[in-house]
Amino acid sequence: MNVLVYLLPLALGLGLIGLFAFLWSLRSGQYDDLDGAALRVLEDDDVTPDRLR
Amino acid sequence: MGDVIDLSSFTRSRDGGRAEMDLALEGVSCGGCIARIEGGLKRLPGIDEVRVNFTNRRAHVAWTKGVTSPEAIVAEVERLGYGAHPFVAQQVEDDEAREANRLLRYLAVAGFAAMNIMLLSVSVWSGNVSDITPETRDLFHWLSAVIALPAVAYAGQPFFRSAFGALRVRSVNMDVPIALGVLLATGMSLVETINHAEHAYFDSAVMLLFFLLCGRYLDRAMRRRTRAVAGNLAALRAQTAHRVQKDGTVVEVPASSLRPRDTIIVRPGDRLPADGVVIAGTSEIDESMVTGETARRALKGGETVYAGSLNFTGALTLRITAAGERTLLDEIERLLDNAVKSKSRRVQLADRAARLYAPLVHTAAALTLTGWLLAGAGLHASVMAAIAVLIITCPCALALAVPAVQVVAAGRMFRGGIILNSGDAIERLAEVDTVAFDKTGTLTLPEARVTNAGLVARDMLETAARLALSSRHPLAAALAREANERRMFEDVSEHPGEGVSVEIDGRAARLGSPAFCDAVWTANQYGAASADSLIAFRHGDETAIFVVQQTLRPDARAVVQALRGRGLAVCILSGDRAEAVAPVAAALGIEDWQAGLMPGRKVELLRDLKARGKRVLMVGDGINDAPSLAEAHVSLSPITAAEISQAHADAVFVGQRLDPVAEALAISRDARRLMTQNLLLAVIYNAIAVPIAVAGLVTPLIAALAMSGSSLLVTGNALRLSFAWPFRKAEAGPPTETRQAKLAMP
Fold first, then answer.
1. B79: distance to nearest CA of chain A, Å?
2. Chain A residues with CB inside 8 Å of B117's CB?
3. CATH architecture, domain defined by B1-88
4. How many angstroms separate the CA atoms of B313 and B267, rounded?
5. ipTM over 0.85
6. Which residues in chain A are contacts of B35 at CB distance < 8 A?
7. pTM score > 0.80 for this model?
8. CATH number for the domain running over B449-549
9. Which positions of B are catalytic?
10. Which chain A residue is nearest to residue B143, measuring alpha carbons?
11. Whose CA is closest to B695, among B394, B392, B389?
12. Which residues of A touch B31 (CB under 8 A)?
């Protein structure tokens, strides 16, 4: 059972990282425009015509 | 026109000489539009930040003061081919957004806690039937407690607050048994953990919160989206006014910045932005938005006019008596107050269930306690059994039963072009047995149409319609809608009170009154009755007469028949003259109609119907309909309605078709059926779970299975509604209108 000593903190730590990542993404407004984000990813304005060739 | 609108009331100043503004956008329909607007605006000098929000069709712009102006920004967006309407977000919308974000944080915390505690709990459950040592179990329970206590204290706040609020006014709502169940489950588990017991219920408490918060958040997100649409539409409809400054100059300002005692000029073709008294000028005005009456009224100095009326023939100078939110007849406001108060007394289905449920559950728990004590079980065992009853009956499924259906139904209505103002409107819509329509703008299209377009030669119609683009006269606006080519002719000269003229292909063309176009004889053939709705057109030697009239919504007849087919009584309550209402009633086959009704009389008629036990759905748009919309059991307004009517309608529908009315009724009836089913499912769940709890057989595993199982069952049942097929799809024809409606909304 000694394995619990580091398995439990590891499990909780991973969960907490997920929680804080979510809270951070919420605070930085990443859920304000879900439809727009889906479309912005398709923009290729940053690719110049030379690089396409 | 060349007028520059003063937009300073929409901008906010920030540090460092910067300013910012929000815009509601029109015509944004694809990802390319985002790039075009953001890229286009960034090319302007002085722009610091542009962010287009595609979800709610808005843009946030920040710039350096003095380098560019809000007017230039709006002009640039319009040059790019989109509509841009500055607006200031309303307080309610901000509150709604903040509340939704807070719920999402609660949800995240509850989710994290539920996952981790479940991880520990499953280990304990499997350990209990194999070889877990009591020390390890205690460690797991203590760890669960360390996670659960702060999580419950934080994520349970919305329920605790609401339950406390209800108890303070000596009433019971659904949150009372929820708060009690969660607190007891947590408290008892803590005591059991201290006593090295085999079972702890931390997982139940936290999972319960997680499920319930899901329901709350969905509900809130739905309402938030509705508010955003409503906010955009208000911005799109925002009017401007021409204000006469103290020094005599005329500036165009947003109507929202008008104040009483301002002097404004209303040009022909403009809607009156505020109530006022005529101090100069004569004209005819169309007050159908205010009274429902479609005949025009001649105006002279000293008369009082109301916001929403349409100015027809001449320029008017007004002194404003009431502006902004006070643009209303006093009587209408008084009627509204009464009606709104009477409606808020209605108790919603879920709360009715809660009032029945809470005492029942608490009695059951008390009986369990006394029963076990009398049967000779120890105090500890008896209390444990009683608490188990409270935990397992914690109305997770019951609390989800109604909101889950409401969210799905509201989503389906949204896709059908119906925007709900209040969530419980769905329940009230389902109970309707009588539908009362207003005529002007509801059964008929809000704008007049050319009714004889098909009888006029194609090229004549096109030339006349293009020429009509240059005129500000409201009748010309109806004709201009027929134009395919949206470009104006050049060098058009305007003859005030008569019409417009221009030279096309070497021949003189005139558009205006029959006398102006030398076409009185032709016009007389259309009869004198419709003389005020004729436009004449002359191009060289050819003449044409266009009849502009109110026309029925394209599917009005089909919708009325469909409503009848579903067993609903249909009637018309109109403020217009009998001669105008009778043909509409005849065309739609409605025998029960009343004309010439004042706003107060409409309300009386609705009260009569109510007294006879009828549940009335009122569909109306005018300012005169606002009190009856508030008085009726439930009400709908087209999106073109006066703002005050929209505010008091339970739902608003978009587009030119009337079928959203039928669809709203169909969806709400489906929804009502599912709500009842869901409540029944919750009752069945309790019928099975309570005896197990009373018998003292509830283990944490059973509690977790029962609770999540019933919640998922109820939510799954609610989702069935989103797959149901609208009842009249087959007869609706090509859904072009619906598609347009969808494009207009986020």
1. 21
2. none
3. 2-Layer Sandwich (3.30)
4. 8
5. no
6. 43, 45
7. no
8. 3.40.1110.10
9. 438
10. A8
11. B389
12. 39-40, 42-43
CA distances from B707 to B128, B184, B325, B388, B678 (A): 21, 16, 49, 13, 14
Residues B746, A19: C-beta atoms closer than 8 Å: no
Contact B328, B618 (CB under 8 A): no
Q: Is B743 an interface residue toward A (CB < 8 Å)?
A: no
pLDDT tens sequence across B517-563: 887 777 777 765 555 678 888 888 888 888 887 788 888 899 999 99
Nearest CA in chain A to B111: A19
- Please name the residues in contact with B44: beta carbons below 8 A apart, sequence gap of 6 or more: B63, B68, B72, B73, B76
**For B443-455, what is the mean pLDDT?**
80
Kindly tell me if the per-residue pLDDT of B730 is higher than 50.
no
Whether B661 and B435 have beta carbons less than 8 Å apart is answered as yes
| A26/B104 Cβ within 8 A | yes
Amino acid B440: pLDDT:
81
- Quickly state the pLDDT bin for B154 (edges 50, 70, 90): very high
Domain range summary for chain B, segments of one domain joined by +: 1-88, 95-228+346-405+671-729, 406-444+553-669, 449-549
Return the pLDDT at B467. 85
Q: Does the structural domain B406-444+553-669 have CATH classification 3.40.50.1000?
A: yes
Question: What are the start-end ranges of the E strands in B488-639?
Answer: 493-495, 499-504, 507-512, 534-539, 542-549, 569-573, 593-594, 616-619, 634-638
pLDDT digits over A4-40, tens only? 888 888 989 999 999 999 999 988 888 888 878 888 8
Do the chains contact at A42 and B31, CB–CB below 8 Å?
A: yes
Predicted confidence (pLDDT) at residue B671 exceeds the cutoff of 80 = yes
